[in-house]
Specification:
Helices cover 11% and strands 35% of the residues. With 88 residues, it is mainly beta.
């Protein structure tokens, strides 16, 4: 988790800022979060265009409509508290 300094009004939107062989980085407001494929395996083989298409329909609730993935900030920050429920 990285805190970014802001000057003036917050113009940042929620977006995926990087994708690597280990996971992806999601920025929301002034904080960036790392989602590892170990904790979030649904992203591992997904096309980049589908990973980049992220929405925040409600504050701190993220949705990837092309992948039908729905995650709260709490799940992202503490994946160990939310064991995987699907068969990969």
């Amino acid at each position: 988790m990285v805190k970014l300094k802001t000057h003036g009004a917050n113009i940042l939107k929620t977006e995926v800022t990087n994708i690597s062989s280990h996971g992806l980085w999601l920025i929301n407001k002034e904080t960036e979060y790392f989602l590892s494929y170990t904790d979030f395996p649904w992203f591992r083989d997904a096309p980049v265009s589908k990973i980049l298409n992220v929405e925040e329909p409600v504050e701190y609730h993220f949705y990837w409509p092309d992948l039908d993935i729905d995650l709260s900030l709490e799940i992202i920050k503490h994946p160990e508290d939310f064991p995987l429920q699907s068969n990969i």
